[in-house]
Fold each of these.
Amino acid sequence: MKPAFELAQVIDRFGSQFADRYQPNGYILRTLGAIRSCRTASLGGHKDRCDTCGHIRISYNSCRNRHCPKCQNTQREAWIEDRKQDLLSVPYFHMVFTVPDTLNPLFFADSAGMYNLLFRSVWETMNQFFLTQLYAEGGMIAVLHTWGQNLSLHPHIHCIVPGGGIGFKGIWKHISVSENGKAYLFPVKALSKVFRGKLTSRLRQAYPEQKERISASWNHDWVVYTKEPFTGPDSVVEYLGRYTHKVAISNHRLLDIKDQDVTFRWRDYRDNLQKTMTLDAVEFLRRFCQHILPSAFVRIRHFGILSSTRKKDFRQLQVSMGLKPSPVNKKQVRKSWKEICRIHLQFDPDQCPHCKSGTMVLIERIIPERSPPSHLFSRKKK
């Protein structure tokens, strides 16, 4: 169902006010401009006609920006299609690594550097436990999230971790299983302490001038938690899609855009209740822009036996488990966006939306109104 309000509307109405007040850089403005122009005449499109009833449909092009809430569905499903080829018949765990909000000023000052250190420290922590607790080489898929439900800055990393690893003799080593059959990975309290030590050590090296702030963060909560293992590979794939291509807020969470305010739905995890929040529209855009990732920054990363450099070993591991190995060249088996829509989104782009029996045929291409400008919002000169 189409949402009643969209992020693009907020940007269109209040983007200039936001630009005047906060003077964001060109990259931020281009991102906001792309979201505002998504699926509008300014990006061009095409006109189709049904070969049965003659119905005319005009479709405008997507911006394909990774921060756009309207451009994530097919990208998410295509990514999941690829990941289906990289599963093992073992339990999988979902782990989350968080940092205290006392470090937020460092993330504001050097977001790319801090996010890279966060990724590195999480993997070093996990790798240490694989080697010292399981005596094996493990792996994980890590996804960076930077937001809380209320759009505040809340950097944390979601990890999908296979339950086991490759031992020193090249044989798969399984995780521990209790007498009642419950799978067990690593103790989260120990993980939290090691993670805190590794990240703070790297922070002191990278930001010596922030020694006091880093030291003060030591006494705050460094929460690492893990959920129950997934019931099988299919549930892993389904769960991955919920976390890999999320943006800071979806259009369906927007409840109202009125006067100078934006109202949206959010979940307060302190009492696990769903609530509503109303923010000044410019403040809403400021919070959203906190979560625009640095240019070309990779927010989904694969480590250990799941990394791209270990594909050959991973395929051999799949064979040893009786699984069909993933193909060498995934481009040969990758589905088109139309196939993705039909299979996963229950939508056939070629079916006539009017008579439901005809096929839409391209009759005209719509030229973009203009080429993308360097920025789409006026800013007052000082």
Amino acid sequence: MVKAAAVLLLLAASVSAADVVSKAPDAVSATLYQSYRGMPDVALIVETRTVELPAGDSVLRFDGVASSLIPATAQILGLAEPARESDFDFDLFDAATVLRKSVGQSADLVETPVKAPEIHHRGTLVSNQGVLALKGEEGVESFGCGGPSARLDVPIPVGLRAVPSLSVHLHSDHSEKRVVHLSYLAGNLRWHAAYVAKIAENGRRLALMGRIVLDNDTTTSFTNVPTRFVAGELNRTRATTPPAIAAQAVQRDCWSLAKSTDPVGWDPGADYLRRMVALMEQQAPVGVTANKMMMTANAVAPVSAPAIVPGAQQNFVTQESLGDLKLYRLSEPVRIAARQQKFFEFLSLPSVEAERIYLVTFPNATTVEGASAQAVWHVENLAAKGLGKPLPKGAVTLYAGGVYWGDDVVQSDVADGGKFDLHGPRLGEVVFDHWVTSESRSQGMIERTHILILRNMLGVEAVVDVPKAAGDRVRLDPHETRRLTYDTSDRF
């Protein structure tokens, strides 16, 4: 028998056995490393926890670890004996996972007609996709998409956690309280540098501001965390990658009898997750109905922002050396919420000397008329020129005169004494024409003769970078027009 019913999922909490549960760390520190050579970013997380261990064999479960934990990198210090084995439980707490793990278990589907008593259908869940199928004393009943609302009561499946957890199997000769340190690498915690460069009116200096941008692309929040950022290239392989975790959607097969005005179920959400975490923390027994809840929206529970204390000192960044690497340390611990991006200023230089040049580029055999050269600022990382600080790679946003001029990127870390270029817009301040006047082919080579005409539209000298065969770099006087003739040879 098939019944049309919009079904909402409810769960009664069942607590799986774990001898010792550490719900949250006492303290956490984080060191974030940058991505190089296409490798994903990683962070080193160190948690301090206080646990009470019973005598004999036990399982110690660390709840609330980062959802992107890389299990093979986990280490525990402070135990009397090494852990015998470890388990990382990261199955997501979503509707599809709950249903999949509940197949073959007892369930209660409760119809809630308008202005009528509830109707209970008790049995064993035998299908969780397309339609819900319950096998009871009267046979198999299926429930689908349309019709009166209904809810499905199932126990929380064994092994499914409301938060990611790492479990270790231990043995202790006697009961004791210990302070342990859990360290591990985690993915999806990343940082990068972001710069704002404001070009001075004369075009020969710029104000440079640098920010560290922290991205927490996990479902885990970290509170009061001392944080460090490491710039530099580490020798890494694909071994340090987190397991793939992806939410699964519940698939439904609807039929034509369902109406567009019928209520729709399977909308898992924030209120559901929040209540489930609270329910599991209460460790309510199986079958308790007072604490049931419904899925309402597919989102993570919102986390309230920390209160702002008037007069509190602003967090700032200090730089240190770590061998050949550079380490940036925040002066104060921070709160890193799930799915959050934070910014910290680490560089503010009001006047950096920069050489403005104009870059002339074009396909070698193409005719170009009235094209504009690109403005480029050549910067030397020297204290004498207003800089002289190691710069991590990162994106750069350019402004001039209060106008947005575009974006560029510092491709790699710039050491003290190094050089980098900032590419700006094509302003029409230097324009050029290009023609190929002759072309010949012989013995696999193409010989061409070129004419390049440069025009300086400015009332000041302009430095122009041209193709190497044309002279590489030329200087144009104010309002000067210059004709360059040169030859090139290319293979075909």
